[in-house]
Amino acid sequence: MSLLELKEVTKTYKSGKLAVNKVSFNLNNGECLGLVGESGCGKSTLARCIMRVENIDKGSIVFNGEAMEKLSERRLHHYRKKIQIVFQNPSSALNPKLKIKDSLIDPYDQYRQSLNLRHFSFHSKEQFILQLLDAVELPSELADRYPHELSGGQRQRITIARAISIEPELIVLDEPTASLDVLSQKAVLNLLTDLRKTLDLSYLFISHDLAAVNQMSQRTLVMKSGEVVDQFNEYNLFSNDRHIYTKKLISIF
């Protein structure tokens, strides 16, 4: 069953640049759908449109049967509880003045009135934070530290913990490992795979790294100049049917 469906989504900036051109796809419950392409192809713009940070010009974005572009501000608040995003740079996503425990509790505080948690419990703030740290395989003593006291990989795990804290249905992963070293990249990708299965999550995994996308995703879309030019499942990456641009990306990795 489709959780997210895009129907000919188009986005043009005021400068006249056509960033996204009639993009259509569906993302199923429990699936990791990859979106790969070089920098500037429109991937991150598409992510912002899905998050409703950017408004689309044409088309429709349907989540759980509702057209996102038609939602009122009240309904949009409910929608944002169901879909979270993890960005490329964890340092910019965390308030440097807040301790880790305060950053972790913030999403819960925003949505506590309408949350019905299944995988985490909230009997106390301290217990909740410990559950989140354990879920992303971090020690409890990090709760009282500040972001600058953590490594890049640890900071990204904290942003993942924030994203899962309100148990969304979909997480948009926008280049989540691009700023990490090779070992940290592998560890974070393995963690994300485990979390998807244990927490019943769905992912839209956006990256320029075809190898990482292929490792994570059951299906992959290839984007070029604002358009989806190819799509395939995890077993057909090296098929002769691949688009010439996909073959170019394969040759790079």
UniProtKB/TrEMBL annotation:
Keyword Ribonucleoprotein belongs to the record: no
Source organism superkingdom: Bacteria
Annotated PANTHER family: ABC TRANSPORTER, ATP-BINDING PROTEIN, TRANSPORT ATP-BINDING PROTEIN
GO molecular function annotation: ATP binding
Gene behind this protein: oppF_2
Residue stretches making up the ABC transporter domain: 4-250
CDD domains: ABC_NikE_OppD_transporters
Name under which the protein is recorded: Oligopeptide transport ATP-binding protein OppF
SUPFAM superfamilies membership: P-loop containing nucleoside triphosphate hydrolases
Keyword vocabulary terms for this entry: ATP-binding, Nucleotide-binding, Transport
Gene3D superfamilies assigned to the protein according to its UniProt record, in alphabetical order: P-loop containing nucleotide triphosphate hydrolases
Annotated TM spans: none
Species per Swiss-Prot/TrEMBL record: Sutcliffiella rhizosphaerae
